[in-house]
Sequence to fold (331 residues):
Amino acid sequence: MVSGRYQKQKILLLKELFERETDEHHGLTMIQILAFLESNGISSERKSIYDDLDNLREHGMDIVAKKTASTIYMLQQRLFQLPELKLLVDAVSASRFVTRRKSFELIHKLEQLTSSHHAKELRRQVYVDNRIKNMNESIYYSIDVIHAAIAGDNQLQFRYFEYAKGAERVMRRGGLLYQISPLALLYKEENYYLAAWSDDHDAIVNYRVDRMMNVRQLELPRVQNDLISAFDPIQHLNSRFSMYSGELERVEIIFNNNLAKVVIDRFGSDLIMTTVDETHFSISIDVEISPTFLSWIFMFGTDAKILSPDYVIAQYQAMLGQVQMLYGEEL
Fold:
């Protein structure tokens, strides 16, 4: 029998064996367990294996014995069950801000949380379609730095870029550093945004986190003012369309009843919806007026109409006129 440090590895090898090769549908016989240990240079007896399995059970492993033609041993319950892992794999696969390469890396790590048999089922869950996947892998590290700066009440510094033709990165402001006071990380429409106070704009602005690079926490306290003190992340999210900034305005809109579900999905179930007639309802909401908000109204055609204020109606009419002129006729 081999002793010394190799023998001490036995219980760790058994733990790995049960985690990797067994589950509620797949088990190992005692002969297979002994053969596995032998292949790793460790001779053992059945009695010592029984003792080792008892020790693993005492430390939380749900190893059970099942009698078939011969008794098999399996790890029945785990921290994550297969349906839960499939859900996580689907979320990673579908996420737009996770690159393809990082998606496969994360899914491979998730596979380590189940048996080799179930891991094959997780691989069958992976799909890649032709949608755009984020190209900036530094986002994972940027998010950590941003969280640390918010928690530490410190300012951030970074460079900001956009994509041009051919996926070429073009630095904003000629590559000059941005310096801001981070307020909150927001997730909307499959992208991470950083809401932050900018001294340059003298306002709260949004930055796409996947377009930030060289993100660094500074040993400078965040700026404090009345606008920052009154900042509400939920209101900030709900009042913006595609995170475009604009002037915050109370807008009244009338909708056809068939759009009730769409409106509730967009503004929440606590929205006050006033009955106008048998076929219409109206809402009054605070939104930041931007091209994306007007485009959102436009996609409903004659089933939605802005009632007030007048200057927003005028902006919408101007947009409609520009679209009409694009096709050769004035509105």
Summary: Residues 90 and 125 are 7 Å apart (CA to CA).
